[in-house]
């Protein structure tokens, strides 16, 4: 009996193992990873290729929104200086300066309340221009981030696209430095970042997103 049961058990366990291995690649507890998944499924549904999730670019996306210093109302008018990429973002993330590649598109939005990645997607891609950036064939890779300030909100979401070669661009030596990570979450590093301490999600995220009082429903999408 046992001789028959074992292969059967293995046959039952193998798919479960494969499933867990697949989900380990991108953390379920990371809203930035979830946003990248939504971006890629929307791209493939419109016959655009998927873009690679690059942790160096994701970390830079997080520094990009930290540069706003929590000023939600400035997300439309201002953006960090180009020189910030080489002067602060790359060094903070441990990204080798020589591997920085061209940013081919960005989507940035800010909300007073935490929303789900799906709602953030809709806010970031809320017009024809946003859709054009989302579906552009110029992109080969992506980095996404969500960040709160120390007190929790407001919540900035940022997606940066690049046309760099995924394996050689935005290259991080070893690991992204801890100081570059929390508060906030970025994609591509398999960081389990949910929880009140990192400022990305408040305990009542589900209820809050239902309330959805969007004080600053400013989402902007600008092409370069
Ligand atoms: C892709 O996203 C756009 C913008 O939110 C939406 O209008 C469209 O229905 C989405 N496509 C699919 C296949 O989900
Ligand atoms: C793709 O890149 C080309 C060359 O830089 C640019 O002219 C074009 O507007 C870009 N397309 C999109 C959809 O951003």
Automatic annotation (TrEMBL):
The keyword Transmembrane helix applies. Keywords: Membrane, Signal, Transmembrane, Transmembrane helix. Residues 1-24 form the signal peptide. The keyword Lipoprotein does not apply. The chain crosses the membrane at residues 201-223. InterPro entries: CAP_sf (IPR035940). This is Ferredoxin-like protein.
